[in-house]
Amino acid sequence: MVVGIIIGIHIVNNAKGGHYIMLFPRLTIFSLLFVSSIFSACSDKKTPSPVSKKIFVQGDPYNIVKGSTFNTQIDFPQQVFENNEYALTTGLNFLEKQEETSSTENIRTENGSKEIEQNSLDNQIFKLKKGVGKYFLSIEFEGSFLKMYRDKNGKSYVEAESKEGTSNSTMDLLHISHSEDFRNLSFLMYGKDKNGIRTLVALYFGPPTNILDLAKKDNSGYYYMLGQSRPYRWKQDRILKINFCHPQAEENKDYIKIQNGVLQWQEGLENRLEIELTATKVYPPFSDFNSHCIYIVPDYFSHPSFVSSNDGSTITIPDFSKDTFLDSDIFIFDKEEQKVWILLEKKLSKLGFDITLEERKEIEKEVRLTLDKLRSFVFIHELGHLLGLDHPFTESEDKNIFSVMNYGSSKEITDYDIRAIQNLYPVIPKLDSKNPESLAIIE
Ligand SMILES: [Zn+2]
Description:
Elements: H1 2-14, E1 19-21, H2 28-33, E2 53-57, H3 78-82, E3 85-96, H4 104-111, E4 125-130, E5 135-141, E6 144-150, E7 156-161, E8 166-178, E9 185-192, E10 198-206, E11 223-224, E12 227-228, E13 240-245, H5 254-269, E14 275-280, E15 292-297, E16 312-319, E17 324-333, H6 334-351, H7 357-387, H8 415-424, H9 436-442
Parallel strand pairs: 1-16, 2-3, 13-14, 13-15, 15-17
Antiparallel strand pairs: 3-4, 3-10, 4-5, 5-6, 6-7, 7-8, 8-9, 9-10, 11-12, 16-17
Helix pairs in contact: 1-6, 1-7, 5-7
The protein binds zinc ion.
């Protein structure tokens, strides 16, 4: 009896992880945001159908960024407006969905994450313009605008303006972020879409890039975030700083699990990449380029279905011009774990008086232990994504590879994972001031 219950729980928790990496220099995100006529110029183009990344969540998507410190006061240097050609590189749309999704098939089609093949090859050029009058900044595309305003109370909002005139759709502008050189910008917005559904949107702009050149292949066969044998990595000449972004910071019980996860990867990396983990109570939202956070999202289902759970997700923003990552953030969804307890409660109530109070307590204790181990695994797994590893299987292939990146096959980092991560981060010559020759190599 007990065994049956535990196995049942295991199945629910087998569908681990899931990550989203979005690469669509297309305009659909605007039509999602505002009335569809705005920025509609693209929809007539004979290019591959646009890919929009919608992530359905149950409950208010604002919860994803709750607790973050926002900032929309950015002083853009003049160079941004002079050299002002940008491509929309990534768009994320967390959308509230009320109804239950009943099958894994629906979840897959709605939350599918493998869209790299569908990218359009042409860059559409957006131009950043300094605001005049009431608005402080605008993004222009072929005569249509996204204008950013600030009201008397200091609240910022975005309004779309088509060639024909202003729409009545506005969204709150929560946060603006930029890379050091201002070549990458992100805008975080919150509001309702045209159907009145609450939505959180992050738009990322970067230098226009020829997508055909993206993610050059190696011969390794390992699975990386941009595809098999396509190594995209963090810059190795600087420390990768990861933050645990939580109101309790290091006092939260998860912190020690995260420390353990970082340690495992660091050992596997053998000094090829230096990782620094800190905990902080003050932090920006995920859309910020300059902070790589692990967030615990307390109260919503990312997968409304009970047939599987998505305990964690990692969102990574690549820098196409440099084969490196710009940003990556991890979300852990607490409510996914609650599915286990809900299922358990259902099973136990069916048993009624066939089970004593003692037995019930014993089962609950065991479930708690199992969940604790699973949580450690989720952190290691998601950190693997953050570093650049993908699940070691494709849709059609079998899932026999023994890896922490494979769903449930290992709860710890394996030899396969070490080979994959070491291939991703090759040994780089160390800067040695006593040896002028090594300096020459670096130059
Ligand atoms: Zn995963």
